[in-house]
Fold these 3 entries.
Entry 1:
Amino acid sequence: MSQRIQQRREAGNLPRLIAVEGPIGVGKTTLTRRLADTFGFDTLLEQAEANPFLSRFYQDPARYALQTELFFLFQRAEQLRNLHQQELFSGPWVADFLVDKTRLFAEVTLSDEEFPLYDNVYKHMLIDAPTPDLVIYLQAPTATLRQRVLKRGTDFEQRMDPGYLERLNDAYTRFFHFYDGAPLLIVNTADIDLVEGERDYQQLVAELLDIRSGRHYFNPRPLGNL
């Protein structure tokens, strides 16, 4: 696989920006880091732990939703501004978020009174986000996401309302049902291991190397077909 990647690199055929997306607990940050290591790319990470309102949001969503979402919006804008200044805007890198996702979360968390305010700020931010060469959407049933969230043991996430996780998962499904902003690879992670499973991961890398346009679904091949 490394030889094939090198050939694509020499031919200038590697994606310059890969965005990995999916709901909480699906494994997007871990996959982002693994892809960056495989391709020798930099990473652009969400840095949710930097949001001072996030732990309070999980304790009292109605009270802290607006502060939480506005912080994430300003954080995205600052990250992209820094990329411009550092002349890294063209990549190559792997990100564990799409800027569009910021608005998706806001639609789930904010009240009918708060969302128009947020949306007005969003529209006036004029975030100059690059278009990914490839988006990888990781999906899993809500019960699987819940198990993974509990397993990783992040303190404030243990208080997450299961209903919130389900609404968020549904919002991601709707969003990517209509998404056509970039080539898209949809990966159901329920029965595969992209964290430690070498075979599943190598098949995923082989799949994404062939994607140039359109919508695709990742289905690992049986051992006999490798």
Note: The chain has one domain: 17-218.
Entry 2:
Amino acid sequence: MPPFDICERTFDFAVRIVNLCSTLCEHPDPSRRLGDQLLRAGTSIGGNVEEGRAGQSRADFISKNAIALKEAREAAYWLRLISATVLPNSDEVRDLHEEVQHLKRILGAIVARAVENT
């Protein structure tokens, strides 16, 4: 069961992304380049959530979490592409794609709720 706390959940997701990308970097070019893109987007989600938690204002909180949502959307794209090309039968890629779909829904709800309460 994934952690309830969004900061812990995005941190755990980032750890899994780093591990996957480490594997991708051992392969020749397209895999390495896709891994680099996924690494940036997948680890940025948690970083932005953490920054939002320490936001200086409600607008800053909304902005950082909206950026985290955008990064989650990008990570979902790279995972989908990796699944379609480099690792088509990978359970880990499939699980990560499922998790990022959950993160997108959670972050979307966080942003929508924060906007409603302004």
Note: The domain at 6-116 is CATH 1.20.1440.60 (de novo design (two linked rop proteins)).
Entry 3:
Amino acid sequence: MFAVIKTGGKQYRVAPDEVVTVGKIEAEAGQSVTLPVLMLGGDNPKAGAPLVDGASVTVEVVKHTRGDKVIAFKKRRRQNSRRKIGHRQDFTVVRVTSITGA
């Protein structure tokens, strides 16, 4: 059985006992969080409109981490004009503990 969940404006396909890196979730390491389900898959799949009624995915926060540094560099030629900015995205590593469906 698998589920498609939505968190942080993105969708993820998850299965039980899977470790997934998602956008930052405001929870401490070790806490459990319930996420909405867009679709349940398996023997008899169910698609929601937009959410599946009575279905939920429980995940456990493993740790908070940050992504690689991305450099945004802009240069205008012959004008002695340039801009360099670095950015690191915050992520949360979660473990799917259970998928419940109606």
Note: The chain has one domain: 2-64+91-100.
